Amino acid sequence: SNKKLLILAGDGIGPEVMTQVKRVITWFEKRQGLSFSVSDGLVGGCSIDKHGVPLTDETMAEAMDADAVLLGAVGGPKWDNLPFEIKPERGLLRLRKDMELFANLRPALVFDALAEASSLKTELVEGLDIMIVRELTGGVYFGQPRGIENLPNGERRGVNTQVYTTSEIHRVARVAFELARKRGRKLCSVEKANVMESGLLWREEVTKLHGEYKDIELSHMYADNCAMQLVRQPKQFDVIVTDNLFGDLLSDCAAMLTGSLGMLPSASLGAADANGKRRALYEPVHGSAPDIAGKDLANPLACLLSLSMMLRYSFDLGKEADLLDKAAQEVVAGGFRTGDIMAPGCTKVSTTQMGDEILKAL
Ligand code: NAI
Ligand code: MG
């Protein structure tokens, strides 16, 4: 069946890395018999330039209708001084909000050939493969009441509210349990149940849900301890599930275990509709990298690995995703490196040449 794929390359290095992704999509169509119906759209600064808004209603509607959305990156100095409502990032925020992408999947995977680039000792991260599932649409970033108030005594007060309902906890925990089932069957749920009611509820509800996933080994950990354990002994983890705020911090922390921003993919999943189709957005973790944009220098692997996540999670094409992951591992192990992951004795390649090598490896 034809898989509807919307590509939003965005700004800066977005279009450059996406060009390599498209070459690989074409390879999968020609050589593996996959069939996609791909359309392109604008998001971020390029959309502001053309339409005056970072995301048009038409493009938003296309995203809602697509089986998966693949995004490059948005933003850049050209648009930095615009008012908040029409900044490039707003396009991304609207996509996340309207598609109700509540589960953010951030793998922290260390390629053997890059283990030495980690901020930690090589032996601590060799073979590391963690998946952090961060709740993305609730919690303290959205809870009401919020705002800055003037108090009668002349003080000002900044207020945010951490709230989670049972259904919000269940739906993200389900995604995490299901993922654990396809991986190492271990799930660690992270909160601060010792000092927060929302954390206590989180722990109780995840524990209840565990009844449906008896084959998964569930553990609970306080967020501060988890931050410490990620740096002390990261390989103890398989899948981690946590709220929006803690997930923001822990996923950035885990990212640094892997060395380079140019290697990190992500997926954001929404609710499944009546036909079981889940809205989904795939994007590299990095931004538009204005400092290297337009120079064919960017590492396309983060975006290519995001494509691999799309194959795996939106289309259940695990074998094809494995092919692409393995090609990336091989190319890096073969010493082909863009500037961001360059090491002594390796061959420096451009964005395009990295794409060439991936195709050869495939
Ligand atoms: P950035 O991720 O764009 O760049 C940080 C550093 O990492 C830069 O030195 C860059 O050259 C390097 N880098 C990033 N991706 C790379 C890749 N694939 N290959 C090689 N090197 C890479 O973050 P920064 O500089 O904070 O933000 C730049 C712009 O991107 C801003 O306008 C920001 O708002 C936007 N941004 C967009 C994001 C998105 O679209 N999801 C996420 C983060 C930032
Ligand atoms: Mg962050």
Automatic annotation (TrEMBL):
Pathway where it operates: Amino-acid biosynthesis; L-leucine biosynthesis; L-leucine from 3-methyl-2-oxobutanoate: step 3/4
Name of the top EC class for this enzyme: oxidoreductase
Enzyme Commission number: 1.1.1.85
UniProt key word Ribonucleoprotein: no
Residues annotated as transmembrane: none
Site (Important for catalysis): Y141, K192
Annotated Mg(2+) binding sites: D224, D248, D252
UniProt subcellular location: Cytoplasm
Positions annotated to bind substrate: R96, R106, R134, D224
Note describing how the cofactor binds: Binds 1 Mg(2+) or Mn(2+) ion per subunit.
Catalytic activity, as annotated: (2R,3S)-3-isopropylmalate + NAD(+) = 4-methyl-2-oxopentanoate + CO2 + NADH
Cofactor(s) this protein requires: Mg(2+); Mn(2+)
Family the entry assigns: Belongs to the isocitrate and isopropylmalate dehydrogenases family. LeuB type 1 subfamily.
Protein name: 3-isopropylmalate dehydrogenase
